[in-house]
Amino acid sequence: MRDGGSAFLHADLLPESTLKNVVDTMVHLVEFAGALVIFVGALWAFVQLLRGAVPWGRADKGGAREPRWEFNRIRLSLGRFLTLGLEFQLAGDILRTAIAPTFTEIGQLAAIAAIRTVLNYFLGKEIEKEREEVERVPGGEPAMSPAVPS
Questions:
Q1: What is the structure's pLDDT at 9?
Q2: pTM of this structure
Q3: How far is Cα 75 from Cα 23, in angstroms, rounded to an integer?
Q4: First vs last Cα of the chain: how many Å apart?
Q5: 120-149 CB burial, b ≥16 within 10 A, e <16
Q6: What is the chain's alpha carbon radius of gyration, rounded to the nearest angstrom?
Q7: Are 144 and 150 in contact (CB under 8 A)?
Q8: Which end of the chain lies in a sparser environment, N or C, as judged by fewer CB atoms within 10 Å?
Q9: CA–CA dist 143, 7 (Å, integer)
Q10: What is the 3-state secondary structure (H, E, C) of the chain?
């Protein structure tokens, strides 16, 4: 009985090759999700850009159009899609190195993570800047917050 228990403790629940195949499939799914998020965001931004370029598009109350203001709103949304997509891509890279990584794979992951972190940082800064600009009314004054009484 003791030997049977000992054999059970040393038995692999899942062989390493099967585990690698399962994780590889998960990596492909997560990376596909990231690519899909980026693609959908780029497609959405392109459609919004085309809608803004059409003369019968939205106009403000005075009939004048504010293309730069709309452009910034589109950029802000696209930046959010890019940031989310990059996070999915990073998750895929982390998953890829989850099972018995080599030092080369760890170094590659560190480089990829550093590059994507820097990209996300600057995208975040750009999103914040664009958000502040979009929150301004076209006349140049900041929009009044609904929570603040006049």
A1: 46
A2: 0.65
A3: 35
A4: 81
A5: beebeeebeebeeebeeeeeeeeeeeeeee
A6: 24
A7: yes
A8: C
A9: 70
A10: CHHHHHHHHHCCCCCHHHHHHHHHHHHHHHHHHHHHHHHHHHHHHHHHHHHHHCCCCCCCCCCCCCHHHHHHHHHHHHHHHHHHHHHHHHHHHHHHCCCCCCHHHHHHHHHHHHHHHHHHHHHHHHHHHHHHHHCECCCCCECCCCCCCC
CB 88 within 8 A of CB 37: yes
Contacts (Cβ under 8 Å, ≥6 apart) of 3:
none
Rounded to the nearest angstrom, the gap between the alpha carbon of residue 13 and the centroid of all alpha carbons in its chain is 34
Which residues of the chain register pLDDT less than 70?
1-12, 54-69, 137-150
| Structure-block tokens of residue 74 | 């589109």
Region of 140 on the Ramachandran plot (φ > 0 left; ψ -120 to 50 alpha; else beta): left
- Cα–Cα distance for residue pair 65/51, rounded to 1 Å: 12
Amino acid at 25: T
b/e code 43-64 from CB counts within 10 Å (16+ = b): eebeebeeebeeeeeeeeeeee
